[in-house]
Amino acid sequence: MNPAVRTEGLTKRFGDLVALDALTLDVEQGEVFGFLGPNGSGKSTTLRLLLGLIHPTAGRAEVMGIDVARAREAHRHLAYVPGDVSLWPKLTGEECLEFFARLQGGVDEAYRAELVERFELDTSKRSRTYSKGNRQKVALVAAFCRRPDLLLLDEPTSGLDPLMEREFRRCVHEATDRGQTVFLSSHILSEVEELCARVGILRTGSLVEVASIDTLRQMHATSLDIDVEGVPPDLSSVAGVDRSERTPNGLRVHLTGSPQPVLDALVGTKVTALRSEEASLEEIFLTYYGETYDGESDAGEADGGDDVAP
Amino acid sequence: MSHPEVAVGRLAAREVRNGVIALVVGLVVMVSAVVKSFASTSLASAGGLDALLANPAVRALYGMPFDVTSAGGFAVWRAGTFVCVIAGLWAVMASTRVLRGEEEAGRWDLLLTASITRAGALGSHAVVLTAGSVLAGLGVALAFIAGGEPVGPSVLYAAGVALVTLTFVGVGMVTSQLWGVRRRASGIGAGVLGAAYLVRMVADGIDGGSWLRWVSPLGWVENLQAFAGNNLLPLVPLAVAPVVLIATAVALDRRRDTDEGIVRDAGSAAARTRFLRDPLGFAWRQRQGGLIGWGIGLLLFGLIMGAITKAFVDFIAGDPEIAELTAQFGFTSLSSPAGFVASMDALAVVVVCLYVVMGIHHLGEDELADRLDLVYAAPVSRTSWLTGGTVATGATAMVAMLAIGLGTWLGVAVTGVDFGLGESMAAILNCLPLVVLSIGLAVGVHGVRPGWVVPVAGGAVVVLYLLSFLGPAMDAPEWLIELSPWAHVSVAPADPVNWTGTVVMVLIGVALGAAGFVGYARRDLQ
Question: How far apart are CA A62 and CA A45, in angstroms?
Fold first, then answer.
């Protein structure tokens, strides 16, 4: 089975700016893949390359086994929701949906009506009167109602209220139940945590991590509070321990990987309490996003590929 | 910068800068060339000139010749209408773009969060647009004075140009308040300019119609009689109109919400999906609304041209010497209605050429507003989308040309001249290669960079037309005039169709268009 998305050395430069640097990535069919990274890191550029809206400077990409350069064929299998949906101001929501349906084909009208209902979209309104969230709903309905093999979603819930965001998550669950693949670029970590099994993290155009969320957690520091009777042992040189500090009742150690070496080192010590605290997903992501990630923060803020028009 | 009005003004100045530079350079070149050519032209001394100038049709076309015995007076008459129309067109387009266009794009939402009121922002823009109008006038004054013309009349005429430009800035400011969509605001503003042109045409062309000149801003400039009577009175309406219009814009501005116009259509509507089935249907539907306005305008234009045909033809037929003289004006074979209509159609088709440029420009507008992202996420190829837009634009051009043909025929028919509908249609369709060329050029530019379609393709239409129409009066070398496609359109059906020219132009148009298709399919969406 072909991967739903495959990129090989996919690169995009706008003049001197490298918006995307040799991205190599496979997303399997049926997967919900989270695509993360700070603003300007190249997420939207990647999606626009996958859609053939812009052409790669180097490398190639496939969706459902079809080269993205063959847009007509490739697009039969996919739907796209941009982060900021622009519609024709004078067309009504219904007219927009109908037009997209005719262009795309394969629309289940009953399902579309159901989605319009679920997203509480008034389709008789001209899109000029729509808020950002309502324009977003039009694109979401247009995308989900075709039940495409692959959904390319670029911050699809920006502008949606929490109720509608919940509806969106339901739609994604339904899609994955049917075996559809979802490629989700998002800044909403709770959304990513709930929906995605695997994530890729981009930074200034480069992929810095691809892992399942569970692996990410394991890879990152867990803090262990160890209350002891008497003088606590020195654990700072134990394998896996990044840091160790005194607490009123004992020690707090920050460790990566298995806690076994620490437990071994505690043999002979009277432990009165043991509490472990996992790093939150937010903390994990922030290490990649820049605050504690090795000093490329300047480049990260440059007008990178995300919102850049060439 | 502690004064947000100044900061907003600077922003506006950046937005209009390139357009002002192009406008001023264009006006200076045009005026200087016509002034300079006066010395070498034989028109001033030609015997039948006075008689020719008394002809209503010539007056309708160029305007009232008050005194053409001096270079200044000659230039005012010969180039004056073009100067005012081009400056007016800039005024309408620039004002609606920086006001309604920016607001429609949502950029004013952010702008107005600064400590500035919308009236303040409007004022800043008005100051900048006024400066642009003044620069246009200054350029005209310098061109006359540098050409050795007396300072007084030069300044008077230049003041007229500046004020008429500012009047149309005012028109654009008002339409920007009235309508919430830039396309509508600029379209109706341009319509007002067109109406002013038609009124002036009738005023100058009809005996006893001279009072009508007081109705049209273009007529006010004529009534200044620069380098002739040097009448100061028209400065009154010329000065009052911008003040009234700008004050109206400010008053209207107070009565509306940001992002909305005064005229609001209903927020909801029943779905009409008949045309929304494929790229072509969609493109046609997008262009339908505007077509009605353009069609009616061009029909009226045709009617007026048709109505003045008889006067012109009778006049020429009576005097072969004058027929020869008219040839020097760029007209040949004018002794028949068909010849005159064909010559007029070459002028009317300029509007159609600009119209098709706008039709292709709409594709770029959609692209730059990111509206095509969802279209291209569907299995739609670039080629099919561009084909839809191009074919729909071509279809609207056909309708526009038929409106001219029909209007002209009706106009001629009511004056009792024997002139068939077929002849009228043949005359306008003879200009089809110019339209094909314009579409081809616009598509070609679109294939490289969508934002350049209006300045490059629209600019080329204006420059190339002026080259053929004003070139002879500007003493332009023959080869330069030959560069203009208008030089290769015969006055069919009075003369045989220039098939070589027609085929060459169509081929060039098709080649440019094909290059545009290839470029569009390959380039990044912007």
Answer: 15
Question: Where does the pLDDT of residue B519 fall: very low under 50, low under 70, confident under 90, or very high at 90 and above?
Answer: very high
Residue B59 lies in a domain: yes
Residue A218 has pLDDT above 90, yes or no: no
Report how far residue A146's alpha carbon sits from residue A148's, in angstroms, rounded to the nearest whole number. 5
| Range B89-102 average pLDDT | 95
- ipTM score here? 0.85
Of the ranges A270-279, B102-111, B319-328, which one carries the lowest mean pLDDT score? Answer: B319-328
- Is B156 exposed, middle or buried, given 0-12, 13-18 or 19+ CB atoms closer than 10 A? buried
pLDDT of residue B84: 96
Longest CA–CA span in chain A (Å) reads: 77
pLDDT of B128 above 80: yes
Helix, strand, or coil (residue A206): strand
Query: Into how many domains does chain B fold?
Result: 1
Chain B neighbours among A 122-181 (CB < 8 Å)?
Answer: 122-126, 128-129, 139, 142, 152
**For residue B228, is it within any domain?**
yes
Reported pTM: 0.87
Any domain includes B137: yes
Separation of alpha carbons B166 and B237, rounded Å: 12
Number of Cα atoms under 13 Å in the Cβ half of residue B499: 1
Residue B243 lies inside a defined structural domain of this protein: yes
Question: In chain B, which residues touch A (CB < 8 A)?
Answer: 104, 180-181, 265-273, 276-279, 282, 286, 366, 369-371, 373-381, 522-526
How are beta strands A250-255 and A222-228 bridged, if at all?
antiparallel
CATH class assigned to A5-216: alpha beta
Over residues A156-176, the mean pLDDT reads 94
Torsion sign (Cα): A185, A186, A189, A193:
negative
Structural domain of B224: 1-262
* Residues 6+ away with beta carbon under 8 Å from B257: none
How far is B47 from B325, CA to CA, in rounded Å? 9
Q: Spell out the domain ranges in chain A.
A: 5-216, 221-278
Residues B90, B107: Cα–Cα separation, whole Å = 22
Chain A: residue whose CA lies nearest to B384? A72
The hierarchical CATH code for the domain A221-278 is: 3.30.70
